[in-house]
Amino acid sequence: MMKRMILTAVMAMSIMAVMAQDSYIVKTKNVRRETPTAVTVTAESATPAENSSEPQNFVTKNFKYRSMCDWQQGMRFMVIPEKYDLIVSTFYDLATGKEVANGKLRHKIMVYKNHTIGANGRDRVNFVCQDDNRSYYFELPHGSFDDYCYGKLGVPTLAYLDDVDRARELLMGKTLITRQPIFYIDTQFDGDGVEEIKVAENTEVVVKAIGVGTRKFPVKIIVEDPKTGKEFFQNVVLSRTNNGMRDDELDLDNKKFVFLNSFDVLDGTEIVSEEYYNYIGKTIFTKYATEMVSKGDGKIRKVRVPRLTEFIIDAIHPQVNSNYVTMTLTEAESRRVYQKDVTFVNENIAGDIDGYKEDYFGYLFGLGEGKLRNSTPETRAMIRQGRVAVGMTDEEVELALGEPETIVSGSNGRVDWIYKRSKKLLIVQFNNLRKVIGVKTQ
Questions:
Q1: Is 368 exposed, middle or buried (CB count within 10 Å of its CB: 0-12, 13-18, 19+)?
Q2: Is 317 exposed, middle or buried (0-12, 13-18, 19+ CB in 10 A)?
Q3: What is the rounded distance in angstroms from the CA atom of residue 158 to the CA atom of residue 215?
Q4: Where are any strands of DSSP class E within 194-309?
Q5: CB 150 within 8 A of CB 67
Q6: How far is residue 234 from each of residues 8, 109, 419, 434, measured CA to CA in Å?
Q7: Is the sign of the CA dihedral 152, 153, 159, 165 positive or negative?
Q8: Does the pLDDT at position 65 exceed 80?
Q9: 3-state helix, strand, coil in the chain (%, to 5)
Q10: Phi–psi pair at 366, nearest 5 degrees
């Protein structure tokens, strides 16, 4: 019975991992599953088209370049090896210290953790794989991390998924205009074969799907011509994060793979101001307990989040005719996604007029990590659930339950914190080291 339960759990996790990968792998319709007989080309090797200089407004306002020096914990990438990458290895398995073939990691999602120095004195860039939950690292080929991160080299094979997610938020279902004549259709369902097609410039098209393209051009945008029903795509670069290309390389043969050299955005497409977008990707923590909305399993729940909980800001959406915005946040420990309505305007709020003080971003959140990094994952999980247990510190208890109604001091440094719970009292007992030695109700 136990073996069956374990096997079922492993199969479930495998299915979830495949689903996570597959959501980023998109194809034009009518693509064939079998290998085609026609000669195919890759998007990178196609003949370039002449284009006007790249407009900057939509891209620069919505897709911020992040050098490796500015990478934040939780940034997500997908392993997309090119042909050369299949004969070399990019990553080492942290548990074994052995190289891992890029083909084995193809389409797996890597979550950035940090950078450290290995036992051999070489700097490493560390990741956790979302699909198999194993830790991997990329060892810098030369120099220190500080020297390396200012260059455009980045980590080979990794396509930046935050660009894909943001493009989905802004462009799905939108009408675009083609700005150059060369696009592509997929010819292999399980491979990378494509066929070049010509499309009349200034054709109005509708965005049908957005997925991952290549490391150089990580956002694959599939559009449809409503008049003909034909789908085609372009792999484009947006923020240029980790794409491994110098600016002059994008100005030459690869010019058309810059987003605004392939498409123009019609009026009405949502653009987030730079004031808000500068916060996206930042790590923050709650200074006070607050209520947020949690979405998962098709359900929406209101959740009381304890103070000093760490989040990464995924998106900020302004509300119509309001100073308020809706922030989408990923909790750093559980990776659960939350939403919170806040305002960045301190007008009529700092004094807690009408009880809205906690809606002000500067009051509710602090920049950086929270203060519970030394707590165990089990303890942090209990804090999120509002539970306490023997061995917890007084700070952890306060995070879980809030401040007590009454504090009673006893002999030998013992202290009891008393909480009112419906018709009962919850009593948390501490020793002189400020650790919980007992929990009871009466």
A1: exposed
A2: middle
A3: 6
A4: 194-198, 204-212, 219-224, 231-236, 263-265, 283-286, 290-296, 299-305
A5: yes
A6: 39, 22, 60, 60
A7: negative
A8: yes
A9: 25, 35, 45
A10: -120, 150
pLDDT digits (tens, 9 = 90+) for 85-101: 888 899 999 999 999 99
Give the integer Cα–Cα distance in Å for 191 and 175. 28
pTM: 0.56
For residue 7, pLDDT over 80 is answered with no
Residue 382 has pLDDT above 90, yes or no: no
Reduced to 3 states, what is the DSSP secondary structure of residue 344? coil
CA atoms of 190 and 171, how far apart (whole Å): 26
User: One-letter amino acid identity for 270?
Assistant: E
C-alpha span between 170 and 239 (Å, rounded) = 14
The model's confidence at residue 233, banded by pLDDT at 50, 70 and 90, is very high
- The one-letter amino acid code at 326 reads T
Higher pLDDT, 330 or 354: 330
Q: Is the dihedral of CA 280, 129, 297, 402 positive or negative?
A: negative
**d(C-alpha 139, C-alpha 70), whole Å:** 18
Are residues 283 and 72 in contact, defined by beta-carbon separation less than 8 angstroms? Answer: yes
For 18-39, what is each residue's pLDDT tens digit? 555 668 888 888 776 654 443 3
**More confident: 136 or 324:** 136
Closest CA to 137 of 95, 106, 169: 95
Read off the pLDDT of residues 292-345 as tens digits, 9 standing for 90 and up.
988 665 567 888 887 778 888 887 877 767 788 888 888 877 778 889 999 887
CB 417 within 8 Å of CB 398 = no
For the stretch 234-255, pLDDT in tens is 999 999 999 988 777 777 678 8
CA atoms 213, 314, 67, 87: torsion sign: negative
- In the 8-state DSSP scheme, what is residue 397? H
Asked if 396 and 383 touch (Cβ cutoff 8 Å), the reply is: yes
Asked if 312 and 72 touch (Cβ cutoff 8 Å), the reply is yes
